[in-house]
Amino acid sequence: MRHKTFLWFILPSLAAMILFIALPLVSVVVQSMYIEHEQVLVVTENCGPFGCTQESSVDTEATAQLRAEQPLGRFAGLATYFDRGHLASSEVAEAWANRESLGDFFAELYNLPFYKALAFTLTYTFVVTPMVIVLGLLIALGVNRLTPALKGPTIFVSLLPMIITPLIGSLILFWMIDAQGVIGKSLQWIFDDPELSLKASPPLTWITLIVYGIWSGAPFAFVVFYAGLQTVNSDSLEAAMIDGATKWQQIRYVVIPHLMPLAVFISLMQLMDNFRVFEPVVGFSAQANAPSLSYIIFADMRSDITRFNSAAATSVLTVIGVTILLAPVLVRTWRDFKGKAV
Amino acid sequence: MSSTIANRSSRSLIVISSAFVLLWVIVASFPFLWTLWGSFKVQGDFFSKADWTQALTGTRTLIETGGTFTGKGYEGAWVQEEFWRAAINTFIIVFFTVVISLTFGTLGGYALARSGHNYSFWLLMIALVFRAMPHITLVSGYLLPFFEWNLWGHIPTAIIVLVAINQPFTLWMLHSFFLNIPKDLDESAKVDGCNQFQAFRHVIIPVMWPGVITTGLFSFLLAYNDFSVTSMLLSEENRTMVPAIYGFLGSTQEEGNVMFAVASVVSATAPLFVLVMFFQRQIVSGLTAGAVKG
């Protein structure tokens, strides 16, 4: 295909991506380097019978005008990145200097909003992703043994947690785990503790969100593995059986190696999706105990005074996180590509 | 002797694996059935203070409304809170997002599949990176400029943003789909005197529909399920179903209002059920297409 034709074909798509994905990323970087104007102060001198006093007051009109004229605010460089709400360099340095133990240091770190969100996001990503793969594989192996008549309905039901709107799915579960909901009540009965509430304690909230993540992610892994199982070479399975391999050994040495490339694909997709975990935090009202990076950006934009700079700085840090997460894949693909070219 | 042992072990294996699948089916479907059932009750039964069996029998519902089922939640959501507006907005946004995404995506995906140049590889890689961007980071980039240029709050803005966010995925999917359509097809059309666009128009378009429908389903899901874009970029009267449901939660102090949210959750889930019922095969093939070729 000639360059010019290619350009015309790709143009609408490329324009949309540049305008609404690439430029917003630039906009985020720019916004993160500005902070809101300070209020304009006017100093007035009141001279009374007992001498003069100087009084400073806020000139609301001038402040509003200044803010309207330069909505970005004033240039602050990287200041926002290092403030308490983000990387908190001085707080971290102080916590490190005053640490009594490493655990103590991490506890201090966990009190800082950005590190708290980062801790939850990373834990969520790296617990949910492998669990999804394992559960998806088990379901796929199980469904594959069913009689054909049962397979269709089972796949239908299995798809539901995946296609459901994330906010709606998490709300449905949130209502069920409520202290008065069906799961919440059952747990109270099982553990014989009428005060048990999954919402109250941070560890239980984390576990709840992770369970939700696995519930909603497993169907994707299941479907991909299930399709992969249909293409397992039956000859090699038979050969393994003749050689005396047990069912478990057949799975371990024939099926799993066959599914390996699919597992890589699933983990890539899941890493991307889990790192941006957002709706479950909203749905489970878990922002106090388990905020994610996406959530704190949302909270900055939702607060009474929109903190564009703070949201933007967190966004930039999140994008850097995503890039680090993707880097191994990108490097590998690039090597493959170079290898092909040579 | 050994064969009977093998039989016995395989029988227990079958029992275990069937039990596991059964357990999964319950875990996957029970929340939906429970919420569907509960949406026809009053709050006192949905959240059973006294005894969870009340949710099944509808004791409080019977006391409060005179029947064991009540449509009050639905009535409150659709009539009193005007959830139908949100439903119409959702329909408009989803429809145009899917149509525009597919138009842009087929053109772009086709070009990427047929161009052997280096830059098409790089474009796909960039699209992959864009695919990984958390949507909320992009939204934080839009907000200030959109406020300034008075673009904020309008339905077309949300549509074009969703189209753009959709593009990386659409491109990847249609690209791998077009790779499967033999190159000879459009080559021979070109030999017959068509230019590239005519070849696309007369030869590729007639055979591309299965792939387009599959991709369209996923575009639909992305637009329909979106919360970050629609909740941040739409004004109150233009908002779609998902942010509207989130809005109900803000006003749950009043007794019974939470049932509005439950009813609207069930209403918003219904189209997704229908979708899976009719297009299960396409969804499964779409999920695996990316895996097998990606």
Automatic annotation (TrEMBL), chain A:
Domain of life of the source: Bacteria
Predominant localisation class: membrane
Gene name of this polypeptide: ycjO_2
Entry's Gene Ontology BP terms: transmembrane transport
Subcellular location: Cell membrane
ABC transmembrane type-1 domain segment(s): 118-329
Family that this chain belongs to: Belongs to the binding-protein-dependent transport system permease family.
Name of the featured protein: Inner membrane ABC transporter permease protein YcjO
Gene Ontology cellular component list: plasma membrane
Gene3D superfamilies with a match to the protein in the record: MetI-like
One Pfam family from the record: BPD_transp_1
Entry keyword annotation includes Glycosyltransferase: no
UniProt keyword annotations, A-Z: Cell membrane, Membrane, Transmembrane, Transmembrane helix, Transport
TM spans (from-to): 7-30, 117-143, 155-177, 204-229, 250-272, 311-331
Membrane topology: Multi-pass membrane protein
Automatic annotation (TrEMBL), chain B:
Top-rank taxon, per record: Bacteria
Ranges annotated as spanning the membrane: 12-37, 86-112, 119-143, 155-178, 199-224, 258-279
Species lineage: Bacteria, Pseudomonadati, Pseudomonadota, Alphaproteobacteria, Rhodobacterales
Residue span, ABC transmembrane type-1 domain: 87-277
Species the sequence originates in: Shimia marina
Swiss-Prot/TrEMBL keywords: Cell membrane, Membrane, Transmembrane, Transmembrane helix, Transport
GO terms under biological process: transmembrane transport
The name this protein goes by in its record: Trehalose transport system permease protein SugB
Pfam families, per the entry: BPD_transp_1
Cellular component GO terms held in the UniProt record: plasma membrane
Membrane topology: Multi-pass membrane protein
